[in-house]
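User: Please predict the structure of the protein below. I'd like the answer in structure-token form so I can feed it into my own downstream comparison script.

Assistant: Understood. Taking the following sequence of 144 residues as input:
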Amino acid sequence: MKILLAPNKDAVGTGTLDFCHTTPGELLVVSSSRCSKGTVEDECGCHRSMTGTQSKKGTTIGIVAEMPEGEVMKWVKHRSDNYYSKIDGASDELKNHLTAWTMRELKLIADDISEIPVGSRVGFAFTNSTIDIFRAGERKKHGV
């Protein structure tokens, strides 16, 4: 299964709007919150970044990687169990729901990056209900 991992700081572009606040190597997911008035070009960054599943911080760059789906599932379940066990009253049903939701999201991302080679740097842009995941120098629309 193709996934996106957070880069090390050296892999982030030199553009003035590029940033990486994630932990190198952590799994990236689409952020569940973006400001309502932001744009891809603004300084906020919420419309052009993804979120690290450990750090809960954003990056404008991801690295395409490959991992067996069972390993991804195990990692997501472990993260869910550990993170949500710290929340008072988080039931097993809630943890299972969030694990399933994260896996569905990761499979959508895997479909979107299926033709992008492992090791490639990719950027992101979100407009309305569309995610644009693109390789350096390329831009291809993907609906999510």
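That's the full token string. The longest helix spans residues 92-112.
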